[in-house]
Prior knowledge:
The protein is mainly alpha-helical. The protein has helices at 3-32, 36-62, 65-95, 108-113.
Amino acid sequence: MNVFLQITDTAGAVLVFLGAAICLLGVVGMLKLPDVLSRSHAATKPQTLGLLLVLAGVALRLRSGMDLATLALIGFFQLMTGPVAAHLVARSAYRTGQIERGELLFDDLDAQLTEPGTDPGGEQEAGGGSERGQGS
Length: 136
């Protein structure tokens, strides 16, 4: 066996092992973290990196053009769909009230979802104006 093939096989095995370990850490984070936002973070970032490392390791082992194209498509679609799915889960959790808004450092979505003249609960205020910003 060629020395170069041995090196690429070993590097591929190391990448597959590292990717699997990172995916395992993401799963542990999903089980142990307390809220929806933390869990969605643990579900996407380590899983995406872990899958990309596994795909790179498998690509080093396979070395076929069609296999490499298939692995590249898998990586591309994972990069496109994983963050979008996590964003949609986090946004729906925010809208259904499963997130403690007081614990957020920045709440940019509140200004987009609340219309002028309404409170965050969605009911009209009695005076027609907002009580925020008035010195009483």
